[in-house]
Amino acid sequence: MKSIVVLISGNGTNLQSLIDAINNQQIDGRISAVISNQADAYGLTRAAEAGITRAVLSHKGFADRQSYDAALMAEIDRFSPDLVVLAGFMRILSEDFVAHYQGRMLNIHPSLLPKYKGLHTHRRALEAKDSEHGASVHFVTPELDGGPVVLQAKVPVFEGDTEQELSERVRQQELCIYPLVVKWFCTDRLALKDGQVFLDNQKVPAQGYAAD
Question: Cis peptide before 114, with omega less than 30 degrees from 0?
């Protein structure tokens, strides 16, 4: 059974989807710890209710990104994770940190990567008058939101949509695809080899398994 460490900064809805999938025996893994850089993150309450070990490591008080990331690595590695899952962890990670977890760290981003890396993805999709939007699960690399995509889910953009409406539509897809990708990893179906994603030993298209 794979050991998973989840990093959060906020509400923890994607964390909850993983907790539920594990409780429903859809994921053959266990969340060994939930770590947050924000002491008031509601995701810590979700972890407590699920009986999961929690830790808070604030980035405040560290001289720079590298020193914080070194301390965070030490905290994560106490739990000997097979997989590190970023679930709304609002920190840009240093190259050393990313390299340390190369091939075993996943993130979910609310856009159809490579479109709209960074923040305010729903607003940008609306301003561009896109007909579709979505979410992407990807392996983490030093480039912000630039790692190889594993799986995407698309949603329609309707005329008159607000950011909140579009965000909620995308979120519902996030709650489905993130547990699925974690399940693939925990059953050794998913791997990152030489910068390419492989599922069941088959190379995944550049825009993810569900590219069609």
Answer: yes
